[in-house]
Amino acid sequence: MSVSLVTKAANKKNEWKDWKRGLPIYLMIIPGLLFFIIFKYIPMGGILIAFQNYDPFDGFLKSKWVGFEHFQRLFQDPDFWQIFSNTLIISALNLFFFFPVPIILALLLNEVRHSWFKKGAQTLVYVPHFLSWVVIVSMTALLFSTQDGGINNLLSTWGYERIELMTNPAYFRMLYLFQVIWKEAGWSAIIFLAALASVDPTLYEAARVDGASRLRQIWHINLPALRSTIVILFILRLGHVMDTGFEHILLLQNSLNVDISEVFDTYVYHVGIVQGEYSYTTAVGLFKAFIGLGLVYLANRASRKLGEEGVY
């Protein structure tokens, strides 16, 4: 009996030592936990107003309950399918054109052998991430303004026609995609560079001994090392397929391109914030969330069947 008590006391003492040793890490976790609790979990209670005619004066408990009326209104809205298709097209551009760019960029940077050049290139491609969309769109507007834009003035001087980049709907999606790639590709490549840094150098040495070229090394060593990271990030990105970047699109949007630039994010702003229809736009947000959740579930299930780890 005494031996078991001594053993329990020793185990408790060891547990206390382990907890004390990990205390700095637990303290580092607290800000992240508070962020998610305050800004992610607590606001989920607001989903309730999607099923009410919410009145700020009556509050959550006294507002009139209307069930799925706002969802019916959304699906019966004549603009719904146009907005839905615009959102899907922009999301598809992000998935199929932007998503591979950081991977390619990381592979290219990983092949650079001169450290000074590699660091300089990384700095150049990281910097745009820290610029706000207001600055980027304003710079584009100044350069391509139809009347006095710098680039348009050069084109006119050389005998070419001016490009109506900001007002012609045909250029909207191309401009959006180019700006996203320029701003975020370098920053998004960091996680892929981190994955490549964990590759065992002896694999490259063995490949060189076997006569593998640099391209073969990328195909047989680097890409397999990135595969799980690519799969997980792709699944997570599918969860945001209905989120296209509110601030960016709102700044590019104008009365001439609104037919192809109106997406759910800007629609929620115009109807919910400007017009004050909080319950209806909460229903729109809930619809977006269900689409993202369904895609993540299906993609994760498919990845598990294909032998990948998936997200969960």
Automatic annotation (TrEMBL):
* Membrane-spanning residues: 25-51, 88-112, 124-144, 185-204, 225-242, 278-299
Report which superkingdom the organism of origin falls in.
Bacteria
The secretion signal range is none
Q: Does the keyword Transport apply?
A: yes
Keywords, A to Z? Membrane, Transmembrane, Transmembrane helix, Transport
Instruction: State the SUPFAM superfamilies in the record.
Output: MetI-like
Q: What topology does it adopt in the membrane?
A: Multi-pass membrane protein
* Family recorded in the similarity comment: Belongs to the binding-protein-dependent transport system permease family.
Q: What name has this protein been given in UniProt?
A: Sugar ABC transporter permease
According to its UniProt entry, this protein's organism is: Paenibacillus radicis (ex Xue et al. 2023)
